[in-house]
Amino acid sequence: MSSSTYDVVVVGAGFAGVTAARELHRRGRRVVIVEARDRIGGRTWTEDTWGRPLEMGGTWVHWVQPHVWAEMTRYGIGAVSSPTPVQAYWLADGRRHAGTADDLMALIDKGMRGTTSEALTYFPTPYQPLAADVPADVDGVSIRTRIEQLELSPEEFDLVEGMWATNFNGATDVGAYTQGLRWCALAGGSWQLMFEACATYKVEGGTGRLVQAMFEDSRADLRLDTIVAAIRHNQEGIVVELTDGTRLEAAHVVVTTPLNALGAIEFEPALSVVKQAAAADGQASSGVKVWARIAGEYEPFVALAPSTSPLTLAQVEHVGDGETLVVMFGSNASLLDGTDRQATQDALAQWIPDVQVIATASHDWVADPLSRETWPMLRTHQLTGALEELQRPEGRVVLAGSDYANGWMGFIDGAIESGMRAARIVSGHAREDLS
Known about the structure:
- The strands form five sheets. Strands 9-8-18-19-20-17-21 form a seven-stranded mixed beta sheet. The protein has a five-stranded mixed beta sheet with strand order 1-14-13-12-16, with no helix packed on it. A five-stranded parallel beta sheet has the order 11-3-2-15-22, with helices on one face.
- The protein has a domain at 3-43 and 206-282 and 371-434: FAD/NAD(P)-binding domain.
- The chain is of the alpha/beta class.
- A hairpin with a 2-residue loop joins strand 19 (313-320) and strand 20.
- The radius of gyration is 22 Å and the shape is globular.
- Helix 1 (15-26) runs parallel beside helix 10 (207-218), helix 3 (101-116) packs across helix 7 and helix 6 crosses helix 8.
- The chain is built from 14 helices and 22 strands.
């Protein structure tokens, strides 16, 4: 059994991990990042497919997301826009509809305003969600319950429910109303700006370009294909045990494992009861992201459907050479295998009956044992009942990642924010050790 000694071990080479490593390096710490995958990036992954860079995971950024925008500015990386939708298709009240994108936005406006009108009431300073003193009963309301409280027509209900199922990438009766409010508060209380931040601007050259630049700045040692089995910690330091028997010794560890996969690591002593319960319950996302090449050059469109459908949202990302590239989302990964061309064509045909899917590309993040989720979205009661504890360090162990962010949870921005906070916490502990 071999061992190595560092100042800090960072578990995970996603945006949170490379951020923490870089910030700790700047504070003079010797850092190693251990990553179970064969690449860096975590739940962001730019894959060259069909001659184009496809984002298989996290994708969109916006200038209302200060942490990621600052990093893009730091490294001189711009943003590119997805095509502006002109046409729209929607499935609602049991029927297929077609119109313009403006028609669709008008149909969901009442419901989206109704589900976000209290955003700034409860979260006037959205980067301090725990300072808002949100009542537990409000945090116990699901986004679906809130939709049901509105006086919507059947068509409006299906579309707004489908929009929120897409936002949560999961079931609307599980996702917290407060989670939706937090997103909208971060967008200044505007659901339209929130929607723009969710699905319009992408990192020029791909998310892989940005995370690589940040990693190179970290000067950290990197061990890929390296799985953590256990983390043992006490007042003297930590030992990270790898599945190959290797031991890494350090003063601190930053763990960026997603909440749903956190239970795969043994902690000794065990994490707090609240942390364990949150990991066992998991967060709300349970959906799928699928790319498809379809025959023909379509006018850029957006499509929406309720969560009972295998796909809840689709939008055009590129048109040319006789084909259209579409990205799609479904809120229940069990309803669609995104690598199945025929199944994807059948799902897309709910909007476009004569569509011909040439090929598909997808990664099942929910089945992936290293994630067990897509982007993190809190369940009911988790804001008031778990977030503060998840952010609290336990001795020399600190959790980081978009799952534990104060701000844009579910986005690259939240991962960077959390990684910066983790580095600050570790640095504070290190100063105490030297005093």
